[in-house]
């Protein structure tokens, strides 16, 4: 069964199982970096809300052998578990006073998201865009979020300047920054995989820091989601640069994390940029790519600049 037939079959079967009081259809949704997903939209005929369940990952499971009947049961179960929550969120979305402490920001590519940016409030930042979203709910494993669109601003009677002020205040509090040495992260990974007394010795050779290579650090937030926005936090890079007594090179690993390198001389910026491009092309999911640029935090000017494109 090809993908188009899979979509038609799931739509028809879900409609059949839910009955005449529901309307089930497919809607294409443009996500970050131009990724287009197919959402199964399930609406109750006498209510003005419609949860969306993306079917792309379900088709992958189908191709890997999961029976269509199991997929249908899972889709309907997900809908029933979340429909009441969605209704509650829709009611909350109408009252901006209840949402002001939930407004946060994230960074996305500007060049690859022009269609999306036409429909959302944003500010330019270097080659990127700062966009806004709501953290509606969260637990240890996940967050329920909603991107803020221009239509929301009209409903709420607010401006993108107010969203900026709210997000500047809320984001560092709700998603505080975390900076960890890459060597510590790699050591933990190795020790989880190998119960070996010589892991530390192997690790030192692997990382190469004893051979004069600069130490690497990873910057994200406590959720490790949209952590690249931490470079917007007041004082975050300034404090790190002061501790390292150096300017800081910033490599955009993804939307979710950044690699920081203290710049004490000897770095090949062009080589770093080529590395970022290659990793984005081969290792990072399209929807998570942040930029092919390399950035530098100039601590004397307290400013981030683009080193190359």
Give structural notes.
- The chain is of the alpha+beta class and 309 residues long.
- It is built from 10 helices and 13 strands.
- It has helices spanning 3-18, 56-63, 68-93, 114-117, 150-156, 160-174, 182-193, 199-207, 236-244, 269-282; strands at residues 22-30, 36-44, 52-54, 103-109, 122-125, 128-138, 143-147, 177-181, 217-221, 247-251, 258-263, 294-298, 303-308.
- α7 (182-193) crosses α8 (199-207).
- The longest helix has 26 residues, at 68-93.
- The model has no long low-confidence stretch (mean pLDDT 84).
Keywords:
alpha+beta, 309 residues, four-stranded antiparallel sheet, six-stranded antiparallel sheet, 26% strand
Strand order of the largest sheet: 8-9-11-10-12-13
**Strand percent estimate:** 25-35%
> Overall pLDDT, averaged?
84
Q: In which range does the helix fraction lie?
A: 25-40%
Largest sheet: 6 strands, antiparallel
Question: Low-confidence parts lasting 5 or more residues at pLDDT below 50?
Answer: none
Order of helices and strands: HEEEHHEHEEEHHEHHEHEEHEE
Overall geometric form: globular
- Helix- and strand-based class? alpha+beta
Q: Cα-atom Rg, whole angstroms?
A: 23 Å
Determine the N-to-C terminus distance.
43 Å
The tally of beta strands, per DSSP, is 13
* Count of individual helical segments: 10
């Amino acid at each position: 069964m090809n993908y188009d037939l899979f979509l038609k079959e799931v739509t028809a079967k879900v409609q059949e199982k839910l009955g005449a009081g529901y309307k089930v259809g497919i809607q294409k949704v443009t996500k970050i970096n131009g990724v287009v997903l197919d959402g199964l939209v399930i609406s109750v005929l006498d209510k003005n809300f419609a949860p969306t369940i993306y079917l792309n990952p379900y088709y992958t499971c189908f191709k890997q052998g999961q029976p269509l009947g199991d997929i249908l049961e899972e889709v309907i179960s997900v809908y029933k578990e979340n429909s009441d929550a969605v209704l509650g969120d829709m009611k909350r979305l109408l009252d901006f006073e209840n949402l002001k402490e939930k407004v946060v920001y994230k960074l996305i590519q500007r060049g690859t998201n022009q269609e999306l940016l036409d429909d959302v409030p944003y500010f330019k930042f270097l080659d990127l865009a700062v966009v806004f979203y709501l953290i509606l709910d969260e637990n240890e494993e996940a967050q329920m979020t909603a991107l803020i669109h221009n239509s929301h601003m009209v409903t709420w009677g607010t401006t993108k300047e107010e969203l900026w002020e709210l997000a500047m205040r809320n984001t560092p509090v709700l998603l505080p920054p975390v900076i960890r040495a890459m060597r510590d992260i790699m050591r933990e990974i190795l020790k989880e995989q190998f119960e070996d007394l010589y892991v530390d010795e192997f690790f030192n050779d692997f990382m190469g820091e004893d051979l004069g290579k600069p130490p690497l650090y990873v910057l994200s937030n406590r959720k490790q989601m949209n952590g690249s926005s931490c470079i917007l936090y007041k004082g975050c890079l300034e404090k790190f640069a002061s501790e390292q007594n150096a300017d800081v090179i910033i490599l955009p690993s993804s939307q979710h994390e950044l690699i920081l390198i203290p710049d004490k001389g000897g770095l090949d910026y062009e080589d770093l940029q080529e590395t970022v491009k290659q990793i984005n092309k081969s290792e990072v999911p399209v929807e998570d790519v942040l930029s092919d640029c390399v950035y530098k935090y100039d601590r004397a000017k307290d400013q981030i600049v683009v080193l190359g494109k």
